[in-house]
Amino acid sequence: MDGELEPLGAMRPIPYMGVIHVVAEAMKLGFYNGHPEWSNLGQGQPEVGPMEGAPERIGRIDLEPGDHAYGPIGGTDELREAVAEHYNRLYRGGSASRYTAENVSVAAGGRLVLSRVFAALGQGRLGYQIPDYTAYEDMIDYHSHRVAPILLVTHRAHGFGLPPDTLRAAVREHDLDAYLFSNPCNPTGRLVQGDDLRSFVEIAREEACTLVLDEFYSHFIYRPDGQPGAGPISAARHIEDVNRDPVVVIDGLTKCYRYPGWRVGWAVGPRDMIEVLGRAASAIDGGPGQPIQRAALAALEPERADQETRALRTVFARKRNLMLKRLSGMGLSFAHQSEGTFYLWGCIEDLPKPFDDSQAFFRRALQHKVMTVPGEFFDVNPGKQRSGPSPYRQWVRFSFGPPEDNVRMGLDRLEEMLAGS
C-alpha cells in the first residue's frame, strides 16, 4: 500500500540454497557447527581436522607488507603457476601441450569461480543435467536473459549417468554452446571416467561445445569393490591442446585438500577463456586475497598434496562402505554404489510412511538431531519453469563428510528412528 514501509524495500525474497536451508532449519532446533550432540549427514564439506595418514594441518599464515594491497584479479603468478604444474604433474605427463599460469584463474572459492564462468558465457544454449549441484539453479537463473538452459535428464536405470552418445545427440539436437556438470556428481557420486570422459572431451572439441566441468571432488575416487581409487580423475588428462580444446575445469582446496574455510578455488582452461574470466572478475569480485594464496602454495607441494589425497581416499572409502552397508540394512536402495564424492544418493521409496518422503524424512531426522538433504534440492530447475512434484522426492543425499564417529552416531540415530516407526 502507498506509504506503507515494506521490510525488504526494493529487494526480493530469496530462499536458501538446499544445504543452507538444511542448516538453517537445524539451527532453529539448537544446531551449531561443531555441536557434539548433532550429526550433520547433510554437510557439504569434508572433515577438516587431523586425519589418519594425512600430513599435519597447515596452521599458520604470515603476512607480508605487500599483502595489504590489492592482488592480481586472477590470482598471484606464483599460485597460478603452481596450479598449472599441479595439473601437468597429475594429468599431462608425456604431453607436449602443457598448462602455464596463463591457463589458470584463481578466485575466493568454487562458487565464485562458477559465478565468473556464468558471467563470461555469451548468448547461447547451456545444457545441464539433473540431479546435480543445487547452486547451478540460481546461477543459471541469474543469467537467463542471455543463457538459455537446456535440460538433459539422467535416469536411474543408467545410475544417473549420461552416456557419451546421449550427450553428443543432445549437443546436436539442441545446438548446445556449452554443457555444465559436476564430476564426480554431487549428489549421486556418479563418475565419468576413462573412455567415457575421453569421449566427453572429444565431443566438446568436435562439436565446438564448451565443456564446463566442476571437479571439486576429483580426488574422492573409489573402486567398484569399495576400495580407495588409484588416484584422481580429471578431464585434463584427455585434452589434446590446452589452448584450443574448449574445456574449463573447476576445482580448489575446498574438498580434496580439506580447507573449505580458505575459500581458494580455480578454473583451468584455454588462455583466451581464462583472460575473459579475469575481465569478468574485475566487475564481480576484484580478485582473491594474497595471504591465503601463499598458504595454498604449501598445500599444493607435491609430496604434501599426494600424502593428503591418498589418506583422504583411504579414510573416506572406509566411511563410504560403512554408510552404504548401514543404510542398505535400513531398507534404502541405491541406483549405483558411489564412485566419488563423499555422498550417497539413497532411495527411500521402500521405507514405511511417512519416511518414504524426503521432506518428512528430513523433518523427522532433525528431531533426532541428524541432518540430511531432501532429494528435490538437486532437481535443478531454473526459474521454476517445470511444475509438479519433483522426481526426487523419494531420494535423499547422505554425507559421510563428518569424522567417522559422528557418521556412526548419525546412522545409529536414523536406525533408531526407523525402528520406532
- Write down how many β-strands occur, each being a DSSP E stretch of 2 or more residues: 13
Instruction: Indicate the overall shape.
Output: globular
CATH architecture of the largest domain: 3-Layer(aba) Sandwich
* CATH superfamily (homologous) name of the largest domain: Type I PLP-dependent aspartate aminotransferase-like (Major domain)
The overall pLDDT, averaged over residues, is 96
CATH topology of the largest domain: Aspartate Aminotransferase, domain 2
CATH class of the largest domain: Alpha Beta
The secondary-structure class comes to alpha/beta
- Helix share, percent: 25-40%
Alpha carbon gyration radius: 21 Å
Unreliable sequence segments: none
Describe this structure in words.
The protein has 421 residues and is an alpha/beta fold. The chain has 2 domains: 18-52 and 313-419, Aspartate Aminotransferase, domain 1 (Alpha-Beta Complex), CATH 3.90.1150; 69-305, 3-Layer(aba) Sandwich (Aspartate Aminotransferase, domain 2). Helices cover 35% and strands 13% of the residues. It is built from 11 helices and 13 strands. Strands 2-8-7-6-5-3-4 form a 7-stranded mixed beta sheet, sandwiched between helices. Helix 3 (110-120) crosses helix 7, helix 5 runs parallel beside helix 6 and helix 9 (302-329) packs parallel to helix 11. The longest helix has 28 residues, at 302-329. The radius of gyration is 21 Å and the shape is globular. 45% of the residues are buried.
